């Protein structure tokens, strides 16, 4: 099978990328699940589309808007299809029950596989291995899709957004959420979720705490929590036992990049996603990446925006319209943990939005993008937090003069 652009992943990033690419190219959209929409289908709470649609939508509503447009555009959609391999010459090997083994030759590829949750094994919680331990996303799927309650007395470890939302969701369904325990001194999710999901429901948030043991044989009977010091090590003598029948883990997300690594795309050590330029093209020509596969976003609106950029330039790449130009590095400066995009290649784009996260919380800061020591864009923020994405927009004509690097700093 031959296509101009193959998009791998049918979540919000894949849907938006496929739609944009279909304006000027023949597109195939490949999704391993039974239906399009990805994680949005189980996110039944409102809060999606505030920026793009100027109104509050649920996850399924947001997804359906794009699914309907994909169907109207006549895009070739392959669901229940798993990609097994991608080669550097953009050949894809995939498999499904209907077609068997598929070999797809694409002129350009967009990677939109999203992200996955960290598990108990990845954060090394000691204790027994009883039933009743779930990641936050799995618990969300059980209650919102399958109609199954994961437990009645709940402890949540980690204050990521999905964990906060599940604290509220479980409370609404009648469970007792004993508390949310966060190893860091600050919440890991958006402040609005801390307020709306915990404070509004009188659910306690215990900062600088973690789970140090799990008790129970067949089913979770309780967990042991303890305070941690400035090095995030448990403090002896602060342990206490909490009876519960369910432990939910909301301990972070990781970009889903096995396919990216398999074909040799360069991966950012901090984001654990592909290094991309302003057109979302990776270090392999003709292969693009967008959404949470690049870095984990706070808002689905930003996922959609980056995906549309990826789709646009993937279509242009398929038509042979992208010429290789000199690379300019983008550097994470003062109090900046990482910046996306990480490189610039002089693509024909009006402006570039640099997305980044800070290392530490600060108030009344000045954010600046500089080109070889000269400030080319700046703005003020009242407060920046590691848990919340920050962005600065720079006009492309100001980037053209850069010779060596673009640097992003947060001072104050």
Give an overview in words.
The chain is α/β, with parallel strands linked by helices and 412 residues long. It has three domains: 1-115 and 253-322, 3-Layer(bba) Sandwich (FAD/NAD(P)-binding domain), CATH 3.50.50.60; 119-251, FAD/NAD(P)-binding domain; 326-412, Immunoglobulin-like (Sandwich). The chain is built from nine helices and 27 strands. Strand 14 (209-215) and strand 15 form a beta hairpin. Helix 4 runs parallel beside helix 5 (161-172) and helix 5 packs parallel to helix 6. It is globular and about 65 Å long.
Shape: globular
Question: What would CATH call the class of the largest domain?
Answer: Alpha Beta
Our measurement of the CA-to-CA distance between the termini, rounded to an integer number of angstroms, reads 55 Å
Uncertain spans: none
| Estimated helix fraction | 10-25%
Oligomer: single chain
Rg over CA atoms: 22 Å
Provide mean pLDDT, rounded. 95
Itemize the secondary structure elements and their pairings.
Blueprint: E1 2-8, H1 12-22, E2 27-30, E3 46-48, E4 57-58, H2 59-72, E5 76-78, E6 82-86, E7 91-96, E8 100-111, E9 115-117, H3 120-123, E10 133-135, H4 136-146, E11 153-157, H5 161-172, E12 176-182, H6 191-198, E13 205-207, E14 209-215, E15 222-227, E16 240-243, E17 246-249, E18 253-255, H7 258-262, E19 287-289, H8 300-318, E20 328-332, E21 336-340, E22 343-344, E23 351-358, E24 362-371, E25 374-384, E26 390-395, H9 396-399, E27 405-411
Parallel strand pairs: 1-2, 1-8, 2-5, 8-19, 10-17, 11-12, 11-17, 12-13, 20-27
Antiparallel strand pairs: 3-4, 6-7, 7-8, 9-18, 14-15, 15-16, 20-22, 21-23, 23-26, 24-25, 24-27
Helix pairs in contact: 1-2, 1-8, 4-5, 5-6
